[in-house]
Amino acid sequence: MTVAQRHGRRIMMTPAELDTFLTEQRTCRVATVSADGRPHLSALWFAWDGTSLWLYSLTRSRRWAELNARPQVSVLVDDGVAYGELRGAELSGTVEFVGEAPRTGEPCPELDAPERLFAAKNFGLDAMPHDGRHAWLRLTPTAVASWDFRKLAEG
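Now predict its structure.
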């Protein structure tokens, strides 16, 4: 899953570091492209299950429409303020639409785990609240690039 990084191998996250980072972070930036080639970037909460990034998107949004037309996506998750604290990961691939859209809570075993993760992480709840306006996208990345500038101080 990890892309060979020619530059910055010293600061690339290990698989365990990347898993911890993605589990702890809350907000990502989702890059899509419109039919006429215009890029679009939007912030979104997510959950990481160790393999896939689960995005809970408004179904009446530019992001949703663009992904319906062209499901390729690039997602950035980053953290840090000072240069020596910067760390992040770019995950890219093709999203899959999972469950009903919009999501109303109909039984969908495939969503049991991501909804528990998302609800606990973002709402402090045991179960996912459904508002009838959002639906699930799953990104199982085909390419990942990561960095952790904190490793420069260790070096």
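The longest helix spans residues 109-123.
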